[in-house]
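Section 5: illustrative case.
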């Protein structure tokens, strides 16, 4: 029986420190930098700001990614580590890896609307509209009044040609 613990706290410089511990072994400390998703998310991952590369920030994100990969290798059922890895891949622009990470996260943490929404949008960015809709519908089941989930569903349904479905979700 493996005993794992998970703790997180907000770092004063807007980083989330995550400590993943296995009984009687050293803890792995993960520093995950959070960014607002958007058009500049790839720049945020690579550490660029106004076209300038911040080598320290870039190295920190690479180290976080490596630590997260080690954490999920050590414990494939660590849903939060999979989720954080998915967030890093999304920010990096690697949608295929983000999908895999979010699929692994939702396999472990089944009732988290954010994970399902992230998975749905990762599928959408990978042009897998049907899977995107299924994942977003699962997110909507968990949070029926979440405006962002409903807006994403409505937008995708409208693009797919399902106008009545889009209207229902956007109302």
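Designed sequence:
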């Amino acid at each position: 029986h493996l005993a794992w613990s998970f703790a997180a706290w907000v770092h004063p410089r807007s980083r989330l420190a995550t400590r993943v511990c296995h009984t009687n072994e050293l803890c792995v400390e993960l520093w995950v930098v959070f960014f607002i998703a958007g058009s500049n998310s790839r720049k945020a991952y690579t550490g660029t700001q106004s076209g300038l590369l911040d080598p320290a920030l870039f190295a920190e994100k690479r180290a976080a990614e490596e630590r997260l990969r080690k954490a999920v290798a050590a414990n494939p059922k660590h849903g939060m580590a999979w989720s954080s890895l998915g967030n890093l891949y999304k920010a990096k622009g690697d949608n295929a890896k983000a999908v895999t990470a979010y699929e692994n996260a939702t396999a472990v943490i089944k009732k988290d609307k954010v994970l399902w929404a992230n998975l749905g949008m990762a599928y959408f960015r990978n042009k897998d509209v049907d899977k995107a809709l299924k994942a977003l519908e699962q997110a909507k089941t968990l949070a029926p009044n979440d405006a962002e989930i409903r807006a994403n569903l409505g937008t995708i349904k409208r693009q797919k040609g399902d106008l009545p479905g889009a209207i229902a979700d956007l109302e």
